[in-house]
Amino acid sequence: MIKIRLSRHGAKKRPFYHIVATDSRMPRDGRYIEKLGTYQPTLARDDANRVALNVDRIKYWLGVGAQTTDRVALFLANAGLIAKPVFTEKPKQSAPKTKAVARAAEKAQKIADAQEAERAAKEEAEAAAKAENEAKSETVAEPISEQSAPTVEAVAQEVSAPVETPVAEPEPTVEPVTETQAAEPAAAAEEVAETPTQSAEPATESASTTEASSAESAPAESKSDAE
């Protein structure tokens, strides 16, 4: 069977490949039927000389049933000669070894444990903060309830107490004043008015008596003087 594959040339650590059509039974770097292009991996990916293809001859060999390797198939797909292949399985040669798989699993387990511990710590912190906020709200609510309790009780007592209706006091009765009662104050006023007059009469009498005695004593003194 004819295969289109790579044939390595170049120096050590400086690879250079030929794209060749060869018999599948021949060794990789052995005899080939025809050279179809070149591949220089040391060049940049955007370099035009990195992959060089003889498109006409490649189409011919594909037309006669030649098969391509995976690497050459990617080159031809990028050039638009064939459809891009789909690789479902990784090559066994590039698969990770047993120890590498164990290290990767251990690393993944450590990462998962760290994430779980972080999540648990976060939940504990949130729960502690929530409990603290609830305790603060309860301590603030207790004094408020104690202060408001008497007011509520007083309001309840006022509401439950019966409403007392004011009782109308009886108006005082005015007794008619009789003529005798009206005359009594007038008589009392007359008596008060007469009382100073009576007290003035004795004062007048005492004054006249004093004058008479002084008149009698005056002639007696004059007689004594004449003698």
Strand order of the largest sheet: 4-3-2-1-5
Question: How many separate helices?
Answer: 4
Helix content: 55-70%
Biggest sheet layout? 5 strands, mixed
What are the low-pLDDT stretches, counting only 5+ consecutive residues below 50? 196-204, 218-227
From the 3D coordinates, which CATH architecture of the domain at 2-87 would you assign?
Answer: 2-Layer Sandwich
Give an overview in words.
- With 227 residues, this protein is an alpha+beta fold.
- Among the domains are: 2-87, 2-Layer Sandwich (S16 Ribosomal Protein, Chain: A), CATH 3.30.1320; 96-156.
- Helix content is 57%, strand content 14%.
- It has four helices and five strands; from the N terminus they run ββββαβααα.
- It has a five-stranded mixed sheet with strand order 4-3-2-1-5.
- A hairpin with a 2-residue loop joins strand 1 (2-11) and strand 2.
- The longest helix has 63 residues, at 98-160.
- Residues 196-204 and 218-227 have low confidence and may be disordered.
